[in-house]
Each structure stands twice: as C-alpha cells, then as structure tokens.
C-alpha cells in the first residue's frame, strides 16, 4: 500500500524541483534549502552511469554501499538521488546530463513517513 503513496510523493518532489527552476548549475543558495535528486522518469540503465560519475568525482557514497547507513532501500533511483545530492552539497552542481532536478522538499525526511 505504501508504493502508491511513495510514487505520489516522488511525483510531487519532481514537480517541486521543476518549480525551483531549470538552472541547476547555480551554487547552493544558503537562504533556500534545496536538494538535488534523480529524475524519477529516467530509465535506470541511463541513470546508473551518472550515479557512478557522482561517486567518482566528489560525492560521499560510503553511506549507499552495502552495510552503509543509507544503503536501504537498495535501488538505483534512491542511490542516485543520494549521490547527486552529496555531489551538489560538496561541489554546488546538480547537472547530471539533465537526469537530476532541484527540489525544495527534503526527500529523506518525507520518505521517513512511508517507512515508520
């Protein structure tokens, strides 16, 4: 039963990301909290290389490795969102070949509602 709610939440997160703006190359604005997330509508085989790129080039991906604190749920979409956001926080860029979006909704806090 949580899957439809999760899909609805992710869709709302994407819409919020689109509202933030299309210029994902901006540095992190200290006044507005934003998160860089993977686009839900991108095929996983297209998303995976960008996940690997983020991890190789500055994102802290240790938490999404097996046994890591954010490994579960074990999905390419969730891991990509984590890696993209880590890269965004460290490097200030959320441009992953147009496979990412900026969101004004904290996806980690909102997802907790579906798992508690």
From TrEMBL:
It is found in: Cell membrane. Pfam families: X8 (PF07983). Keywords: Glycoprotein, GPI-anchor, Lipoprotein, Membrane, Signal, Transmembrane, Transmembrane helix. GO terms for cellular component: plasma membrane; plasmodesma; side of membrane. The chain crosses the membrane at residues 6-25. Residues 34-114 form the X8 domain. It is a lipid-anchor; GPI-anchor. This is X8 domain-containing protein. It comes from Lupinus luteus.
